[in-house]
Amino acid sequence: EILPDYEEALDGLEKYSHIFIISIFHKTPPEYSSLLKVRPRRLLRLGLKEEDLPTLGVFSTDSPVRPNPIGLTLVRLFRREGRVLHVEGLDLFDGTPVIDIKPYRPDYRAENYSYPDWVKLDARSSI
Questions:
Q1: Region 64-76: what's the mean pLDDT?
Q2: 11, 58, 71, 103: least CB-packed within 10 angstroms?
């Protein structure tokens, strides 16, 4: 749900099937902002042990532990009802501050992209 003062800014958004939600990771402790290396902990759900996880630069992951705690999530927009957007795929805590919403456009699609093996492993687990 968006604040009443911004309801008018949603006009036309319902024509899109997908939108980006830009947020602030407000639950990440401030002292974590100095961490530049992280492990993709989401791989733990695949049965990997923490010591088996790769150590990576934070900018090569989607970890909420970041020098600047800004989150970006692509979600499916089902419908708009006034100030409320009904979406699927939002991976934020209830009450997470949303700082912007942007429509997804077909010209944003990347082609001939590459990514590391650990991402392929994670992607297979969510199919």
A1: 93
A2: 11
